[in-house]
Amino acid sequence: MASNVNPTVRRRRLGQELRRLRELKGMTAEEVAERLLVSQSKISRLENGRRSISQRDVRDLCGVYEVEDHRIVDSLMQMAKDSRQQGWWHSFGDIPYSVYIGLETDAASLRVYDPQVVPGLLQTRAYAEALITGALPETTPTDIEKRVQVRVRRQERISAPENPLRLWTVLDESALRRVVGSRHLMRDQLEHLVEQSQLPHVTVQVIPFEMGAHPGLNGQYAILEFPDAADSSVVYIEGVTSDLYLEKANDVQQYSVMYEHLRAQALNVDQSRQLIADIAKEYAR
């Protein structure tokens, strides 16, 4: 599913390179903004890959940083051109979490913790539709269907015949007990979860109620890791009106350590699969 040119990842790599050039020059983002007569926030957004960057922006920044090697400038200009192309998700229109989709599309592995619902990559279509309808009550049927289609398309990373996404998910038992849609729908969803958990690149663990307090009580998050060493890992935290992306090494490390604690406190793979299957049978009664 991933194309050769992922605009989200290209913007991120380009931003990292521009930040490196600025730091080599010994300049602050504020100083660069003053030289170019733009806001400091624009420089920050360009460097963190959250904003499209034009070839003109690259040319101006390279001028400020006094980059004399034309090969470097040409390479950065090409990255800027590639970063303005559209990914597959753009064909669905305005998607609120399009930055995340771009990162997920290029990721090699994904670690997810969710205390409330089954993660999107492991949802059935019916569960996804019922979940989105309940979570976003003012959303039109057309927009709900669009979101469902995007979710189903994202799941192709799991079923890809070559280089499928390595997914590790830790669920709270409440995600299995919360009836989304209907009991019949939940039975189908949990049976699907059991089936997916048997894939060699998918690991599912459950933290049972009896575990009590644990490090994941603060909420859902995901850690994305990439095949290219130049791309640092990202922690993604979904919000209501905006999302949070943490890329600093210390932040990623803290969330990674917390995830290891969650994995350690959760039931093992076989126990988790058995619990999911048992709850699915309860919904069949």
Automatic annotation (TrEMBL):
SUPFAM superfamilies: lambda repressor-like DNA-binding domains
Record domain HTH cro/C1-type: where: 18-73
TM segment ranges: none
Source superkingdom: Bacteria
Pfam families: DUF5753 (PF19054), HTH_31 (PF13560)
UniProt name for this protein: Helix-turn-helix domain-containing protein
Biological source species: Streptomyces longisporoflavus
